[in-house]
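Side project, low priority. Logging it here so it doesn't get lost.
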Amino acid sequence: MPQLLSHQRNPLGRTVRLLGWMADHEAEDFGVRELAAAVRMAPSTVHRSLGALEEEGLIEPSAATGRYRLSLGFYRLALRGAARAPVLEQVLPHLRQAARSGGETALLSIFSTTQLEMIYVAEIPSRHALQVRLPLHQWLPLLGSAAGLAILCQLDAETLVSAVSQQPGRVESDQLAERLAEVRERGFAALSDSAAGVRELAVPFQGPGQTPLGALSFAVPESRANAVLESSLGQLLGQLAQAASKTLSNPTQPVLV
């Protein structure tokens, strides 16, 4: 309740929270009462916040329905801001090299020490006619992907416990320790999503002081995956993740192009 009251009394905080909720959900537009229920604010409060966002050109109302949607002004700011993110700027050349050399869909994921989750922020599709895709720009639990498992291998004990404690479902510590030991021994994480028909391979990269920052991944159709291909792609990811870590630790050094 104190946190809810804090949001209600902080105009900037509630407006940012509202905008973030709209960005995180895929509906084309949103009604005032729908938003109020979702973010646990009074409809009148939400209406005032929406008015402020509309005034700044970040959302726009539909003349036909009166519902609100994110505007091109919001997307312009989001894309310009993302392009300037230091990690994205420094690691993208290595992601491009992964896509060129590996021939499969290459992905870049980032780990948040506050969310204790990860998010895929960039993707370069495969050259093959048959492609598989992973969800971009969504917070995801670490245990649900190879990228997440790779990141978990780099966390200190305290952060690892905190991250695992908020995973959906119960996680047995012995089983998790065994899975992470397998990842470390193999040199890369591998995880299948049979429902989506995708096999993901991932290796983490670090920043200054070996701080875990994210992972480089390949998403491969299960029908194309095999031990030889996985070994080759895993080695490639290891080389490029190591190069990305050097780039992030020494940002003045030239990067791959």
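Brief comment: DSSP finds ten helices and seven strands in the chain.
Revisit when time allows.
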